[in-house]
Amino acid sequence: MRRFLPLIALVLAMSVVFAPLAIAATAAKPAASSASDRSPAAPFATAISTVTGIAISPLLGTGAYGAYQWWIAKDRTARAALPWYAQVKFWLPALLVVGLCAAKDAFGAVVPPGLKKPLDVLETIENKFSGLVAAGAVVPFTMSAVSKVLVGSAAAADHGVNLSGLAMLHLGAADMSWLVSALTVPFGVAMFAVVWMASHAINVLILLSPWGAIDAALKAARTGLLGLLTLTASINPWMGAGLSLIVIVVAYFASGWAFRLTTFGTIFCWDFFTVRRKRFIPRENDNKLFAGGNLPGVPPRTYGRLLLQPTGNYEFMYRPWLWLPVKMAPVPASPESLAVGKGLFISSIICEGSGTMFLLPPRYHGHEETIAREYQMGGGVRDAGLRKAWSVMQELFGGAAAKTQMV
After folding, report:
1. Collapsing DSSP states into helix, strand and coil, what is residue 136?
2. pLDDT tens profile 354-404
3. Which residues lie closer than 8 Å to 54 by C-beta, 6 or more apart?
4. Most confidently predicted of 23-37, 111-125, 276-290
5. Rounded to whole angstroms, how far apart are CA atoms 184 and 145?
6. Where exactly are the structural domains of the chain?
7. What is the rounded CA–CA span in Å between residue 131 and residue 108?
8. 8 A C-beta contact, residue 377 and residue 339
9. Are 339 and 322 contacting, i.e. CB atoms less than 8 angstroms apart?
10. Angle value at C-alpha 273, between 271 and 275, nearest 5 degrees
């Protein structure tokens, strides 16, 4: 039964939001012009596609959406009344930054990792910042505008000849726009957060990937999905909404994987950008790190602490989702079998015969000898390089059999 709880929660959440909106759309139908075959609830379908598209690529989505609103505005007065993200001073620089990131990925295959990696860090930070801006301003504004359209249509139907649904309740007189906004805005933000987190995981994969060709392929796949969503929504808003819901459901069920990657990317960027390794001193025990792909019962990249018990056994202590009750996982390795693999950007703790057990954040770079000594690792410190491409891909995507050492 427990395995179906996430699905039940998702269905209930959608029902709470969509049921009142469906009633409002039914009430608004008499107000629709006979010359048009577009449903009065079509703006809501379009908003779902818009929010999903922005979540897939916040800067590109917000910039393109703002440029489109600016383009369809009739005159200067109408353009001056547009929100800030639809002004030239925002969407033009935003699209230029997107173009620079695309050029970086296009030439990434011939750029050495040491030069490209700082640019990947900056792009990951940009994706986080633009995601926060979109979630805090663009998405609520879009969903609130849609709720006003729905309530306005229902209010118009209330004064028509054929009254039905919410029109019989005199929705226009009661001014229920606040209620519809209270339903749509939080739902829009939650929908954005789930899809953005899954999309942001691609930025983290690019951050971890040692090859520019993989980066370009991941970015092309995400851009292709955004393009398909835009094309589908332009053909039919309900087709676009249907594709968006598929994306949302997939992102919902991948949220645990995406959350761990997002946490990894956030800590990686913070350590890298602030050069934390220069002021960081590892503890004698109980150091924070990430689980690798070979720790039984623990999802890859789970953030926690590695403990060396007085008995000589290792244990990994962590909180699922960073706030749930603490769990302890025994590490099936002896001190003699462990070693620290020193990489160019990320070091790891490896076990002979098992592969990567833990990933060390960038703050540990230069402190590998200390970690090996404090945890009594018999293998000491080794230089870690790239192995087969398949092993690297398994590590990046969380395969349980991943056995690569990170660069």
Report:
1. helix
2. 888 999 999 998 899 999 999 999 988 887 754 434 444 555 565 544 444
3. 61, 62, 65, 134, 138, 139, 192
4. 276-290
5. 10
6. 2-270, 279-396
7. 24
8. yes
9. no
10. 60
Task: Tell me phi and psi for residue 309, to 5 degrees.
Answer: -75, 160
pLDDT of residue 11: 46
What mean pLDDT do residues 285-310 have? 91
Nearest to residue 303, comparing CAs of 291, 315, 285? 291
Residue count (the chain): 407
| Residue 171 pLDDT greater than 60, yes or no | no
Confidence band, pLDDT 50/70/90 cuts, at residue 46: confident
CA dist 343 and 361 (Å) reads 11
> Are 382 and 342 spatial neighbours (Cβ–Cβ below 8 Å)?
yes
279-396: CATH, from 2.40.50, 2.30.29, 3.40.50, 2.40.128: 2.30.29
Q: Please, what sign has the CA dihedral across residues 202, 207, 213, 219? A: positive
pLDDT at position 393 is 52
Beta pairing, strands 314-318 & 303-308? antiparallel
What angle, rounded to 10 degrees, do the helices at 237-253 and 212-235 form?
140
Question: pTM to 2 decimals?
Answer: 0.72
For the chain, what is the radius of gyration of the CA atoms? 25
Q: Distance between CA atoms of 151 and 178, rounded to whole angstroms? A: 9
List the single range of 3-12, 142-151, 250-259, 337-346 with lowest mean pLDDT: 3-12
